[in-house]
Amino acid sequence: MCARGLWSAPVLVIMHGMAGHKLKLGIAQGLLLVAVVTLGACHKDSSGAAANPAPQIKPKAPVVPRPGATVAEQTLNMVEASAQGKSQLPVQLKFELTQRPKVGQALDINLALIPQIDASPAIIKVNGGDGLTVGSETTEFAIPAAAAGELYRQTVNVTPAAEGILILGVTVSLKHDEVTDLKTFSVPLIAER
Questions:
Q1: pTM of the predicted model, to two decimals?
Q2: Residue 77 has what pLDDT?
Q3: Is residue 20 domain-resident?
Q4: Does residue 123 sit within a domain?
Q5: Is 55 among the domain residues?
Q6: Same domain flag for 75 and 160
Q7: How confident is the model at residue 45 (pLDDT cuts 50, 70, 90)?
Q8: 23 and 111 fall within a common domain
Q9: What's 183's domain CATH number?
Q10: β-strand partners of 92
Q11: Is there a contact between 172 and 124 (Cβ–Cβ < 8 Å)?
């Protein structure tokens, strides 16, 4: 039976007023035709698709990391010093204790200065609070030219003279654009007997 006959069969059945079995048979024939045409379209010859292959995706070259550790990696075990006041100077100071602070025993504190702007010069001044003595040779450090994002390390020698919480004050001054800005930090220590 041709496709026209299948489609017209349900219409004829409805037109003649016949219901029931013949109507169901006509609908079934129509659905069968749609299924055969759909399946036939799915199994077309794919020789035309082979002439136009899908474009190959080229793998990107691997990103080569910079040699050496980053500032974050180098200061991973350090603690960020607490900034005092409302200075907006873009500089970060981190510290690391070489041992547990004990009253009467000298202690080295490693400082890491990370300026976010270029400065010429950068000066670090260190002062001990009550109960904390700073070694005279480690009270001031000068960095002639500090570059933004670089790491500058200094070691400060202190001796706790009292038990409890002691504060090491650190003032950083950066000269940039013919202006010198200051930022003060606190490094807390807990000294034991």
A1: 0.64
A2: 92
A3: yes
A4: yes
A5: no
A6: yes
A7: low
A8: no
A9: 2.60.40.10
A10: 114
A11: yes
* Structure tokens belonging to residue 180: 């010198």
Query: 51: which 2 tokens?
Result: 């002439």
**Token output for 101:** 């602070």
Reported as a pLDDT band with limits 50, 70 and 90, residue 14 is very low
Q: How far apart are CA 72 and CA 85, in angstroms?
A: 25
- Quote the tokens at residue 157: 């020698």
| Residue 32 vs residue 161, higher pLDDT | 161
User: What pLDDT band is residue 83 in, cutting at 50, 70 and 90?
Assistant: very high
Q: Which residue has the tokens 């050496």?
A: 68
118 with 177, same domain: the answer is yes
Are 23 and 14 in contact by the 8 Å Cβ rule? The answer is yes
Check whether residue 19 and residue 101 sit in a common domain: no
Asked if residue 75 and residue 32 are part of one domain, the reply reads no
Residue 51 lies in a domain: no
Find all residues with CB under 8 Å of 91, minimum gap 6, and list them.
Answer: 113, 114, 115, 116, 117, 172, 174, 183
Sheet holding 82-84, edge to edge: 82-84, 179-191, 164-176, 122-128, 140-143
Residue entry with tokens 């691997």: 62
**Mean predicted lDDT score pLDDT of the chain:** 80
Alpha-helical segments (H) within 16-84? 21-42, 47-51, 71-74
Report residue 173 as tokens: 């001054």
Q: Is 168 helix (H, G, I), strand (E, B) or coil?
A: strand
Q: How many domains would you assign to the chain?
A: 2
Query: Which residue range is the domain that position 30 belongs to?
Result: 3-41
Place of tokens 């006509």: 26
Residue 27: count other Cβ atoms within 10 Å of its Cβ.
Answer: 13
